[in-house]
Amino acid sequence: MDIVKIRKLKSEELVAEISKTKAQIVQLKSEVAMHRIKNWHLLIIAKKYLARLLTVTKEQEIIKSLSHE
Q1: Which residues contact 21 (CB under 8 A, 6 or more apart)?
Q2: Domains (ranges, CATH) in the chain?
Q3: pTM of the predicted model, to two decimals?
């Protein structure tokens, strides 16, 4: 999902997507450690996606705090 679509998500949807991505990262780490998958680049992609999600979450928190002042 690209950044424009991520920014359109509601906060509840973001939280659900973050938890799903964290679970996916744990699963990918274990599969890479046990040499079950050869494409370990999927782990890097999942981490970058998680970083995007967390960045958008932080942006939304900052916008809410600025609008309440």
Answers
A1: 46, 49, 50, 53
A2: 11-68 (1.10.287)
A3: 0.89
